[in-house]
Design brief:
Largest sheet of chain B: 7 strands, mixed
Strand content of chain B: 25-35%
Number of strands of chain A: 14
Strand order of the largest sheet of chain B: 3-7-1-17-14-15-16
Distance between the termini of chain A: 56 Å
Radius of gyration of chain B: 27 Å
Strand order of the largest sheet of chain A: 4-5-10-6-7
Radius of gyration of chain A: 19 Å
Number of helices of chain A: 12
Largest sheet of chain A: 5 strands, antiparallel
Oligomer: heterodimer
Distance between the termini of chain B: 57 Å
Number of domains of chain A: 3
CATH topology of the largest domain in chain A: Uridine Diphospho-n-acetylenolpyruvylglucosamine Reductase, domain 3
Number of strands of chain B: 32
Number of helices of chain B: 20
Strand content of chain A: 25-35%
Bound molecules: flavin-adenine dinucleotide
Chain lengths: 289, 752
C-alpha cells in the first residue's frame, strides 16, 4: 500500500504553495464526494491530499447586496441551503446544487467540487453558467477571475493551470423581476446522473423578457452557454413561438454522444423540452421578485 | 390449528435478527476474519469469447507474498459427456462457471485465482498471470445467437442435427392446437422481448474458508443454502461432505442467485494449497459482470378465444438466455404462462439459448415473469378487442380444482378467482382515473395475474427445551425473508408460551440435518411443517413427563397455555406443571426434552396473484411513473403478516424495475457497460409508491398451519400489469422491456 499525505492548510496562500510544490501529485479535497470515489475505484492515486475546508474564504458565504453573493468554493450544499438570502436571490442555482446526490452527499458536496470535477453532467454548472457567475481562481501566479463556462475543458478536464485553486464563485446583482430555475432529466427520481440539465436565468419587465441566459449540461463535452436560446427569449413574452425558437436553439447546440445514459436523439429532444419547462418556472419566479 | 384467534401465529412479532441488523452487529459474509488469513482474488477474462490455449502462472507465483494459485486443472474434472446433477444444477456447467476450462465464455469469466498476503499483492499477481487466448467472435443477444451464421459457443451442442446455440428445449402440450385456433373467433399473436435483469442484492458474494492440515474445511459464507454450499464444494473439490462445515452468515439478499456457488470451491482450493485461511470478496463490478442475472427472453405468444371470452387455444414459444453455459429456467414460462387458465389446447415450447454473457441464476419465480409478460399482455388485448373487462375474462377462464395442469399434476385447491375478486372489489379498481390530468401527461390503469408452482422439499428442525425451561429451535434454512420470525410464532403458539422465550437459530451443515435451499417459496412452508411436527412430539413428551410425575396415564394429561394439566377424572387433582417445572425435573424423568424432525415435505400448492396498477406518463420525456399499486395474493396463512407483506411489496418493486428501467448494456466487445448501481437502474425508494398488499388467507388444506408459499408469485404479474397500464395511458402496446424513457419516446413516434 502506498502512503498518502494529508494536508489541511488554513490560508489560500498555503494551499496554493503546497499544491504547486506537489507538481501534479496532489489533489484538492473539498467534500470528497467525487475524489474519494475516484480514489477507491483506482482512477486517481494522489500522493498528497490538500483539504481546503479549513480555509475561511473557501467556506464563507458573503451577501454583497442587490442579489449579489460570493460563495466559497467548498461550501457544502446543505450549508448553502440554510442561507435564507441566497435561497431568495438564486433559487435556480440553489436547487441545482441541492439536487446533487442525497442528504448524505449534500452534507459534503460543494459547487466548487462539482465545477472542478468537470463532468458535463454536473448539476450545479448549467445553473451557475446561466447565473453568469464569475470564478475567482488563485495560483502560483496570483489571482484571476473568469466566467464559470470557461472552467471546464472537457470531461474530467479544466482550464486551471498547475497549482491553481478555485477560491469562490461570485453571483452578480440582478434587477428586480429576475429569477432562475434548473431542471434535469433523470430516469429515476433521485440518485441518478443528468441525461440533460438546463439552467435558465431571466429578468422580466411587464411580462417581457429583458435579459436571459441559458446553461445546458450533459449534451456536449462541456456545459454550454446557449446564447442563441437566450436571444430567442429576449424581447418576447415567452409565447409558444419564442419558447419553440429557444428550444430549437438548445437542440441545435447539442453535440451529445450515444452512451449508456442516453442516446443522441433522446438527449437532443429532451434539451428542447426542458428549456420550455425551465423557462416557465424561472418566469413565474421572476414575476414574484 | 388454522385458528385465526391464535395468540402468536399471525401477529407482527419483532424480528429476531432486527436489532443486530439495524445496529450493524449482524455478521454478513464479508465480516469474518481468521488468524493468519490471506486474500484471494479472481483473474477474470477480458474477452467475451475466447479459447484458453494456455495459462502460465510462473511469474505470479514468483511474486513475493503470493501463497497459492489455482486454475481449472485444480478442480475435479467433469467430462462434457457425463451429466452430474445436484438438484437442478449440472456440475459440468457449474464447474466451468466457477472456473473457465476450455473457453472463456463471457467478459468477467474466472480463469484463475490467486491467494496472497493482501489484496494488492493478489491483484498484482493476477496481472502477472499470462493467459494465451484465441479470441473468438461473440454473440450476446438471443437474436444474434440463434442466427444461422452465429458464432457457436460449444461444438458439442446440436439442435435439429446442426451445431447450434440452442442447448435444450422443453415442450408441454395438451389438446390439438390447430383445431383450437380453428375454433377461435379472435386470435392475437405478438412477439415480446425482455432484457436480463440482475437480482440486485446489496451484499456481494464473499466467503472465508479454512482448510486445516487434517483435511477438515470450514466455510463462512452467505447463501440460500449452506447444504448446497457444502454439496457443490464437495463435488467441485473432491472433499467429502463430512469434512466440510458450511456456516451460514446473515444474508444481504439473494432472490435466487445465491442458490449456487461462485467463490467457495475456489477459496477451498486456495486454502488447501496455501495452508492458510483464505477470504474472497467480490466487488459490485464482479457481481454485475459475472453472477447470474435472470435471462433475457424472446417470446411469441398466440392466444385464441371465443366471442364470449372463453379461451380455446394458446401457443407459446419462449427463447431464454442461459448465459455462457446451458441451463435457463424454461419451466418458468413454458409451464406457468397459461397454467392459471383452463385452456383445452396448448402448445408451449421453450428454447435454452447459450450466448456470451454470465450464466443465469435463479431469480424469484425463474422464467415466470417473462411468460406472464407475454401471455397477460395478449390476454389484455383480447379482452379489449372483445369489449370484456380483463378481470371478468380471467374469472371466466380460471382453472378449476381437479383440472389437469399443463405441467402434469391435477390441481388441488385453485384460488385464482379469489385474487381476481379481491382486486375487482378493491377501491383502487373502482376509483376514477383522470387519464389526461395535465397537458403532456397521461395516465392509465392495468391489471395482470400470475402463477407460480411453489415447492416443499427437505427440511430439518431441532426443538430443544433448555434446562431453564425455554426453547431453542434450530432450522437448516438460511433466513432470507423472515423465516426465523415465522417459526418463532409457530413454536410459541404450539407450546403455549411467551414468544420471547423462543429463540430460533440457523444451524450449520454439521449441526442440523439436511435442509434444502431457501428458494422456490418453500422455506416457511417446509420449516413450519417440520416445526409443527416437532412441537407436537415435544408436547407429547411433556405430557408424558407430567403423567409420570403425577403417576397417571399420559392420556389423562392436557397441554394448555404452556402447562401440563391433569384432565378428565383427574382434573384439579394436581397443581399444573409449567414448562419450567418440567425442564427442572427433566433428568430425573428420563433425560433432556427435545425433538428433531426431518421430512421431505409435500403439499405446497401453487400460488396465484392478481395485480392492479396506475401509471402516469410524461409524454415528452417518456418517463413512466407508478402512481398506485395493489397486489392481491392467496398466501394460505400469514404466519407473520409483516413479512408476507414485505415479500409481496419486494416482488412488486423488483417487477417495477424490470418493467421500467433495469437492463444490461454491452459495448461492442461484449463487455457489460453498466456494472454499477448508478447505471444499472434499479428503482430507488422515491421511484415507487406504497404498495398495498392484499393478503388473502385461504388456509392450504395440505399444511398443518395452512401455509402456502409467498415469495415468488408477486414478481410474476408486474411486467404485464405495468405494460397494460401504459397501453391504457398511451394507446400503444409495449412488447419490449424495459419501458425506459428513450424507448417510450421512440415508441410514441412510431406510427401504429
Ligand atoms: C452518491 C453520489 C451521488 C452524486 N450525485 C450527483 C448528482 O446528482 N449530480 C452531480 O452533479 N454530481 C453528483 N455526484 C458527484 C459529486 O457529489 C459532485 O460533483 C460534488 O459537487 C463534488 O463536490 P465535492 O466538494 O465533494 O468535490 P471533491 O470530490 O472534493 O472534488 C471534486 C474534484 O474537484 C477538485 N476540486 C474540488 N474543489 C476544488 C477547488 N476549490 N479548486 C480546484 N479543484 C477543486 C478535486 O480535486 C476533485 O478533482 C454524486 C456523488 C455521489 C458519491
Amino acid at each position: 500500500m502506498t502512503d498518502i499525505r494529508y494536508l489541511a492548510p488554513t490560508t489560500v496562500d498555503e494551499a496554493v504553495s503546497a499544491f504547486a510544490a506537489a507538481t501534479g501529485a496532489a489533489s484538492i479535497l473539498a467534500g470528497g464526494t467525487d475524489l474519494l470515489v475516484q480514489m477507491r475505484s483506482g482512477v486517481r492515486k494522489p500522493g498528497t491530499i490538500i483539504d481546503i475546508k479549513k480555509i475561511p474564504a473557501l467556506t464563507a458565504i458573503e451577501d454583497l447586496g442587490g442579489g449579489a453573493f460570493r460563495v466559497g468554493a467548498a461550501v457544502s450544499g446543505a450549508v448553502l441551503a440554510e442561507h435564507k438570502g441566497f435561497a431568495k436571490a438564486w433559487p435556480g442555482v440553489l436547487e441545482a446544487i441541492n439536487l446533487i446526490g442525497s442528504k448524505q452527499v449534500q452534507g459534503r458536496a460543494s459547487p466548487g467540487g462539482n465545477l472542478c470535477n468537470s463532468s458535463p453532467a454536473g448539476d450545479s454548472v448549467p445553473a451557475m453558467v446561466a447565473a453568469g457567475a464569475l470564478v475567482t481562481i488563485q495560483g502560483p501566479n496570483g489571482k484571476r477571475e473568469i466566467p464559470v463556462e470557461a472552467v471546464p475543458a472537457g470531461p474530467g478536464r479544466t482550464t486551471l493551470t498547475p497549482g491553481e485553486i478555485v477560491v469562490s464563485l461570485t453571483f452578480p446583482a440582478r434587477p428586480a423581476g429576475s429569477s432562475d430555475a434548473y431542471l434535469r432529466m433523470i430516469p429515476r427520481t433521485e440518485m441518478d446522473i443528468a441525461v440533460v440539465g438546463i439552467g435558465v436565468n431571466l429578468t422580466m419587465e411587464g411580462g417581457v423578457v429583458k435579459a436571459a441566459r441559458v446553461g445546458l449540461g450533459a449534451v456536449a463535452p462541456t456545459v454550454l452557454l446557449v446564447e442563441a436560446a437566450a436571444k430567442a427569449l429576449i424581447g418576447t413574452k415567452l409565447d409558444d413561438a419564442a419558447l419553440e425558437a429557444a428550444a430549437a436553439a438548445c437542440r441545435a447546440a447539442c453535440n451529445p454522444i450515444n452512451d449508456k445514459r442516453g442516446t443522441i436523439v433522446y438527449r437532443t429532444k429532451v434539451a428542447g423540452v426542458l428549456l420550455k419547462r425551465t423557462a416557465a418556472i424561472a418566469a413565474a419566479r421572476a414575476g414574484g421578485n | 390449528m388454522n385458528d385465526m384467534s391464535n395468540k402468536w401465529i399471525g401477529t407482527r412479532t419483532i424480528r429476531p435478527d432486527g436489532a443486530d441488523k439495524v445496529t450493524g452487529r449482524a455478521t454478513y459474509s464479508a465480516d469474518n476474519t481468521m488468524p493468519g488469513m490471506i486474500w484471494g482474488k479472481i483473474l477474470r477474462s477480458p474477452h467475451a469469447h475466447a479459447r484458453i490455449k494456455s495459462i502460465d502462472t510462473s511469474k505470479a507465483e514468483a511474486l513475493p507474498g503470493v501463497k497459492a494459485i489455482v486454475t481449472a486443472k485444480d478442480f475435479v474434472d467433469f467430462p462434457l459427456d457425463k451429466s452430474v446433477m445436484l438438484g437442478i444444477q449440472d456440475m459440468r456447467w457449474m464447474a466451468r462457471n466457477v472456473m473457465a476450462k476450455e473457453k472463456a465464455l463471457f467478459h468477467g469469466h474466472p480463469v484463475a485465482a490467486v491467494a496472497a498476503i493482501n489484496e494488492q499483492v493478489a491483484a498484482e499477481a493476477c496481472a502477472l498471470i499470462a493467459v494465451d487466448y484465441e479470441v473468438l467472435p461473440h454473440a450476446i443477444e438471443i437474436e444474434d445467437a440463434i442466427k444461422p451464421d452465429a458464432p457457436i459457443l460449444h461444438d458439442w451442442v446440436q439442435h435439429e442435427g446442426k451445431p447450434s446455440n440452442i442447448a435444450g428445449t422443453m415442450v408441454l402440450k395438451t389438446g390439438d392446437i390447430e383445431k383450437g385456433f380453428a375454433e377461435a373467433d379472435i386470435i392475437v399473436e405478438r412477439t415480446f422481448t425482455t432484457r436480463p435483469v440482475h437480482q440486485g442484492y446489496i451484499e456481494p458474494h464473499a466467503c472465508t474458508v479454512s482448510h486445516a492440515a487434517d483435511g477438515r474445511v470450514t466455510i463462512w459464507s452467505s447463501s440460500q443454502g449452506q447444504f448446497m454450499v457444502r454439496a457443490m464444494t464437495a463435488l467441485l473439490t473432491g472433499i467429502p461432505q463430512s469434512n466440510i462445515r458450511a456456516i451460514p452468515a446473515e444474508i444481504g439478499g439473494g432472490f435466487g442467485a445465491k442458490t449456487i456457488v461462485y467463490l467457495e470451491p475456489v477459496a477451498v482450493l486456495l486454502s488447501k494449497k496455501s495452508g492458510r485461511p483464505v477470504k474472497i470478496v467480490m466487488s459490485r463490478d464482479d457481481v454485475q459482470r459475472a453472477t447470474g442475472p435472470a435471462p433475457g427472453s424472446l417470446m411469441t405468444v398466440k392466444i385464441g378465444a371465443k366471442k364470449d371470452g372463453t379461451l380455446v387455444a394458446a401457443k407459446g414459444e419462449f427463447y431464454l438466455q442461459a448465459g455462457g453455459l446451458p441451463g435457463s429456467p424454461l419451466r418458468g414460462p413454458v409451464g406457468c404462462s397459461f397454467a392459471a387458465y383452463a385452456i383445452p389446447n396448448i402448445l408451449s415450447t421453450g428454447y435454452d439459448v447459450v450466448s456470451n454473457r454470465s450464466k443465469v441464476a435463479a431469480y424469484r419465480a425463474p422464467g415466470a415473469p417473462h411468460g406472464a409478460f407475454a401471455a397477460e399482455s395478449v390476454l389484455d388485448e383480447i379482452a379489449e378487442k372483445l369489449g370484456i373487462d380483463p378481470l371478468d375474462m380471467r374469472v371466466r377462464n380460471s382453472a378449476k380444482p381437479g383440472d389437469k395442469a399443463i405441467y402434469g399434476p391435477n390441481f388441488g385447491d385453485v384460488t385464482f378467482i379469489e385474487t381476481v375478486d379481491a382486486i375487482r372489489k378493491h377501491p383502487h379498481y373502482k376509483a376514477p382515473l383522470d387519464k389526461n390530468p395535465r397537458p403532456g401527461v397521461k395516465r392509465g390503469r392495468g391489471v395482470a395475474s400470475g402463477f407460480w408452482y411453489n415447492a416443499g422439499g427437505e427440511s430439518s428442525v431441532q426443538v430443544n427445551i433448555t434446562e431453564d425451561g425455554n426453547v431453542v429451535v434450530t432450522t437448516g434454512h438460511p433466513d432470507v425473508g423472515g423465516s426465523r420470525a415465522s417459526i418463532a410464532n409457530v413454536v410459541a403458539e404450539l407450546l403455549g408460551i411467551e414468544h420471547g422465550r423462543v429463540n430460533v437459530i440457523i444451524g450449520d451443515t454439521q449441526t442440523i440435518g439436511f435442509s434444502n435451499l431457501t428458494g422456490g417459496s418453500r422455506v416457511t412452508f417446509a420449516s413450519a411443517m417440520v416445526a409443527t411436527s416437532a412441537c407436537e412430539k415435544v408436547v407429547a413428551q411433556l405430557k408424558d413427563r407430567a403423567a409420570k410425575i403425577w403417576k397417571i396415564e399420559a392420556e389423562a394429561v392436557k397441554w394448555e397455555d404452556g402447562m401440563a394439566l391433569p384432565a378428565g377424572d383427574n382434573a384439579g387433582k394436581f397443581p399444573p406443571l409449567s414448562l419450567k417445572d418440567l425442564a427442572a425435573k427433566a433428568n430425573e424423568m428420563g433425560g433432556p426434552i427435545g425433538n428433531q424432525t426431518q421430512l421431505n415435505t409435500t403439499g405446497a400448492d401453487p400460488g396465484f396473484a392478481t395485480h392492479c396498477v396506475d401509471v402516469e406518463v410524461d409524454v415528452d420525456l417518456g418517463i413512466v411513473r407508478v402512481l398506485r399499486y395493489t397486489a392481491a395474493q392467496d398466501v394460505g396463512r400469514a404466519l407473520h403478516p409483516g413479512y408476507v407483506e414485505g415479500q409481496i411489496q419486494g416482488g412488486v418493486v423488483q417487477g417495477i424495475g424490470w418493467a421500467l428501467s433495469e437492463e444490461y448494456l454491452y459495448d461492442k466487445n461484449g463487455k457489460v457497460d453498466n456494472a454499477t448501481f448508478l447505471d444499472y437502474r434499479m428503482p430507488v425508494c422515491s421511484d415507487v409508491p406504497m404498495i398495498e398488499a392484499l393478503v388473502i388467507e385461504i388456509p392450504n388444506s395440505k399444511h398443518p398451519q395452512g401455509v402456502r408459499g409467498v415469495g415468488e408469485a408477486p414478481i410474476v404479474p408486474p411486467l404485464a400489469a405495468i405494460a397494460n397500464a401504459v397501453y391504457d395511458a398511451l394507446g400503444k402496446r409495449f412488447t419490449a422491456l424495459p419501458m425506459s424513457p428513450p424507448k417510450v419516446v421512440e415508441r410514441l413516434e412510431q406510427a401504429d
